[in-house]
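A quick aside before the break. I want you to see a complete sequence-to-structure record at least once, exactly as it would be stored in a machine-readable document. Don't worry about memorizing anything.
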Amino acid sequence: MKFATCSYKNQRFVGMISSDEKDINFFQMTPSQHAEGVLSLVRASQQSHELPPLTSPSIAITDVKLESPFPRPLRNIFCVGRNYHAHAKELSTSVFKDNDADPNSWPIVFTKVPESVVGPFDNVLLPLEVSQQIDYEAELAVVIGVGGKNISREKAMSHVYGYTIVNDVTARDVQMRHQQWDLGKSFDTFCPMGPWLITANEFDGLIAHIRCWVNGELRQDGNTQQMIFDIPTLIETCSRGITLLPGDIIATGTPAGVGMGLKPPTYLKNGDVVKIEIKGLGSIENTFIA
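That is the input. The structure line, written in tokens, reads:
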């Protein structure tokens, strides 16, 4: 099933997307539940395995504005850095050369603030007064459904509610300047997300095909099978000593092909359009505006 958050007639609604992705039916929920977006469904799943009833008739997707499924995430998004072998290699001669990924070491984990999240087709603002090196990162994001602490790798996938797409937009110069990643990852609008959430029973995140285009040019083409640390390992790692909550989001890292890894490095400029597609899940497309 695919669940979306959208705006319709100046109100926010949460609904189910039709199998052909052409229509949406809203759930019968309170205004406050709709305001939370898909997070309200994740929360409700802790008390009941049944979804709220749907309204009818359906509404055409073209008549609504899709928002991020989580308009304001529960808390900071857990993010994983340099988690694909080829991506680690392409940055091995960059400023990150001293942080070479090692399959026998620990994942690099940082966060993006909730306020960085925007919708799947919203504009991304280029903060040119602060950064001249804005980069894109196409990623599969995992949404936790069943919370827990010290979750074992063997049980990790039973804690997954579903998946969505994020663009982990990054100000590379800010990232390098502070020698930590949160500030360079957390500018306003730096986390486009969507177009909806697909439930774990209908999508296999362990074999997800991820592609990214910049102005129609294919830049990234990878598969989550190429990860250094797979999804169960990431859930196990993020829950060590930390209680994961229903609705927590883990962005799992990006394949090779980011702007910083090109020769010469090529960063985003005013008017650039970045499209990210994950086969079977959907796509997001954002214009970068100075």
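Two observations worth writing down. The chain has a mean pLDDT of 94. Residues 2-66 form one domain. We'll return to this after the break.
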